[in-house]
Every structure is written in structure tokens, then in C-alpha cells.
Design brief:
Elements lengths: L4 E7 L2 E7 L4 H22 L4 H45 L1
């Protein structure tokens, strides 16, 4: 079992030390970079100054993107299952 090590991430020019396992470091850094980018976009677009408001708006935007991606994935899986069913029916009909 890997021990957690502190990793420094910068979000809106503030440094945060986050404990994470060495194998999760790259994912943490990628997540922090995405969050920093989203928060900067919101701050620049709205000129909002409250860090709390910027963070909540970024969280809502990222969550919306996640839910949309999940929904798209579900739709793709549904199409794949229907195609597989059609393929099986065609195979069965050709074998008869």
C-alpha cells in the first residue's frame, strides 16, 4: 500500500498541499490544472471577484460536462447493444 505524499497544486495563484498516493499524482495535477483553467475562464468572463463564487461556478460547469459525457456514453452503449442484437438476429437468420 502506497503512502500519501503532499503534492503542491496552484489554483488561481494560490498554493494548496494535497495528500495523494504517488500513482495518483498525475491525475491530481491534471485535475488541478483543469480546475485552474475553468476558474480563470469564469473570473475573466464575469469579472467575479469572490473566490467562493468562482469555485462554485467552476464546479457546476465541470459537473455538467461530466454528466453530459456520462449521458453520451450511455447513449453509445445503448446503440452498441442494439447493433449487437441486430447482428445476432442477422446471423441467426442467415444460418437458418
Amino acid at each position: 500500500m502506497s503512502a500519501e505524499n503532499p503534492v503542491a497544486v496552484n489554483i488561481l495563484d494560490r498554493e494548496y498541499l494535497i495528500g495523494c498516493k504517488p500513482e495518483e499524482r498525475a491525475g491530481l495535477l491534471a485535475a488541478a490544472s483543469l480546475l485552474d483553467t475553468k476558474m480563470r475562464e469564469i473570473r475573466n468572463a464575469s469579472r467575479a471577484t469572490s473566490l467562493d463564487r468562482i469555485a462554485v461556478m467552476a464546479a457546476l460547469n465541470i459537473t455538467h460536462e461530466l454528466l453530459q459525457a456520462r449521458s453520451d456514453g450511455d447513449a453509445i452503449r445503448g446503440v452498441q447493444m442494439r447493433l449487437q442484437g441486430l447482428d445476432e438476429k442477422l446471423g441467426s437468420a442467415l444460418n437458418d
